[in-house]
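Example for tutorial group B:
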């Protein structure tokens, strides 16, 4: 089985609950199942320009 889909791993910044989702959802929002905080799914880091 091929897995061409990239997963983004991120955490709720409020309660620390870990989530993962497909990279096509980067930039969208999800609601934390634990604490109802709105989390913006981060984009994958594809370059090292933002290291500062
Ligand atoms: Zn949470």
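The residue assignment follows.
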């Amino acid at each position: 089985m091929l897995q061409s889909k990239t997963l983004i791993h991120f955490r709720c910044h409020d309660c620390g609950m870990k989530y993962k989702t497909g990279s096509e959802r980067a930039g969208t929002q999800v609601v934390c199942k634990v604490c109802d905080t709105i989390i913006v799914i981060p984009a994958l880091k594809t370059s090292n320009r933002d290291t500062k």
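The mean pLDDT is 87. Compare this with the pattern of hydrophobic and polar residues in the output above.
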